[in-house]
Amino acid sequence: MMNAPHNLHAAYNETFAALAKAREQANVALYAEEEGTVLSVSAGTARVAGLPGAASEELLVFPGNLYGTVFDVNENNLGVVLLGNWWNLCSGDRVKRTGHPVDVPVGDLLLGRIIDPIGNPLDDKGPISTTLRVPLEQPAPSIMNRLPVSVPLQTGIKAIDALIPIGRGQRELIVGDRQTGKTAIALDTIINQRTTGVICIYCAIGQRVSAVANVIAEMRTHQAMKNSIVVVAKGNDPPGLVFLAPYAATSIAEYFMKLGKDVLVVFDNLTHHARAYREVSLLLHRPPGREAFPGDVFYIHSRLLERATHLRPELGGGSLTALPIVETESQNISSYIPTNLISITDGQIYLSPILFSLGVLPAIDVGKSVSRVGGKAQLAAYRAVSGQIKLAYSQFEELENFSRFDSKLDPHTQQTIDRGKRIRACLGQPQLQPIPVLEQIHVLNALSLGVFDTIPLHFMHEAEICVRNSAPSINKDVADQILTGKDFSEAQQQELRTIAQKSISHLKEKK
User: Fold this and answer.
1) DSSP letters of 70-105?
2) CA 280 vs CA 20, 70, 77, 119, 241: distances in Å
3) Is the pLDDT reported for residue 23 higher than 60?
4) pTM for the full model?
5) Which residues are catalytic?
């Protein structure tokens, strides 16, 4: 039984290698002499005639080693999306078929690498020497091949792991205005997987080169690149490459998932993806709909995110977790693309620009955020301590607005507001500093049981550090029960409360 994963991996690789070789031989035999002609060229698209046997999504070869994929199949010509520098392409140029769809290299050799959506390396580590390639477009696993989402994916962020839990195989949307910390949450989640065995794929879709470089630099600084792959479609790339980027990242992730591994994919962001699809669709004269997006813009995202799942054990038992990011304008969460994605995903994490401007980081609006998987993908200890925190925080947010109009508050209301301020301070967290599960539970348990109620608000950060530093003194049996997902009894909660109280006793007398 110990050799089963290795044998599965070897058989999987042999199958892909055999398919690639057979496909190459078939291409030479069937498609070498079939050529077409470029009729017209526009910004990143072309019209081609003379390839009657070409199929939708088939890869075509143009002069200068330029590739394109069939986007529209009409009676007299083909609409082709170009996947590279198209400026030297002219009408009358010859086009050849390849006989296979657009594909991307896969395998362990991609770990630690930076590639474009068709597998070309973008780093300085040389070519990717693998013969294993898979198509970008693949059907999602059937319902009968899926398992319920039950294993947590720890982000290292207290507010998410406690109040908006994410499970392996889930699709959780990160939504908010520009510059509210959406990428920061995804980056923290990737960094937190350094020791979990989860393979991370960061897909940059239409981002500025400087922004992508900063993300990669942080991943390298925090030793997160060794188990990660970065797929990049830059903002100045042809719209066809930008459109294909998330499908390439998902195909790479599915390869590892089918080997029984857990994979996390971050799509940053799908707003740019929808705009690239709108651009190529309008250039190919597809009819526009709402906000000039084609009518099937919902379908391109649903067929992408439906590939995230948790497979049955006989199929490897791996999982693919998707964290798509979408950008809103002026907090308009009900606009076209965000509402489409909210209806596709299993919940959303909403980032408020108001909280961000107030310095509350991460700027997560707990009231507008939800996880539809919920406690089913959460350790029992989180469920034991987070319920009261979420209720108290919701009450605080309602009272906070009203308290601004009245300086005289009754003692109970004032107590609720004071407690809510401490919860907000405790849920705050610096970027790039994910917190281990045991330390999170220790802090949240102290918060839930009122340990911080007597601490002055401006000492909350120091008190939290003291409680976290006291986590190693927790009884090993209790710690093991917490980390393995067993029930967190009231006696154990009180035991941790006593440890927390001792760790901050020196702060209670400070003013």
Assistant:
1) EEEE-SS-EEEEE-S--TT--TT-EEEEEEEE-EEE
2) 30, 12, 16, 21, 11
3) no
4) 0.91
5) 372
